Amino acid sequence: MTEELGWDHPIQDIPETGLHVERVASPEEREAIARTLDLIACSSLTARYALHPRGEGHFRLTGTLQAQIEQSCVVTLEPLTNEIAESFSVDYWPETEIPAQEGGVVDVHDEPDLEPIVTGRIKVGRVVFECLAGAIDLFPRKPGVTFEAPEAPSEDSGRSKSGGPFAALARIKNKG
Asked: β-strand 58-72 against 79-94: which pairing, if any?
């Protein structure tokens, strides 16, 4: 995955009291997001978040994002605008301390979201991007629009006056 949002923070720049940030995506970042997520446009994206040290080289990221995106209606293909508001919470640990996944069934609701601290940096943009991507309606529909399936063909509609495509074979079989 490319880095649509290169929003990251060196861990040495995060004070003991934490870091509080508001980021607004640039036009270039919004264009990259729209292209990657197959949107008509990403009109706005704002993330408000806090990074707090948790001891032993661990950090917690909590925040919210608000976005306005433009998608195509799956029924009419007309553009429609959707508002997205999501929250996120992720723990960051040094790469070497993240426990290995063990076999078996894992309940994702019981497991904390753990992200690695890579080269001493916390990649907030990746979390914001993934949170946005997960919140997008995969089948957007304009209000009041319903899909009307075409009528099912009747049994006679596929047959010609000669009795259909296999009528000639049936006549040959009956002659023999």
From this structure: antiparallel
For the segment 57-115, what is each residue's pLDDT rounded down to a tens digit? 999 999 999 999 999 999 899 999 999 999 999 999 998 888 877 666 655 555 568 89
| Rounded distance between C-alpha atoms, residue 2 and residue 164, angstroms | 55
pLDDT at 7: 94
* Residue 45, Cβ density class (10 Å: 0-12 exposed, 13-18 middle, ≥19 buried): buried
Residue for token pair 């509080």: 20
Range of the domain at 149: 8-175
Q: What is the pLDDT of residues 116-148, one digit of tens each?
A: 998 999 999 999 999 999 999 999 988 887 777
- Tell me, yes or no, whether 129 lies in a domain: yes
Contact 155, 163 (CB under 8 A): no
The alpha carbon of residue 3 and the mean position of all alpha carbons in its chain are separated, in whole angstroms, by 15
Q: Return d(Cα 136, Cα 71) in angstroms, integer.
A: 9
Residue 69 in domain: yes
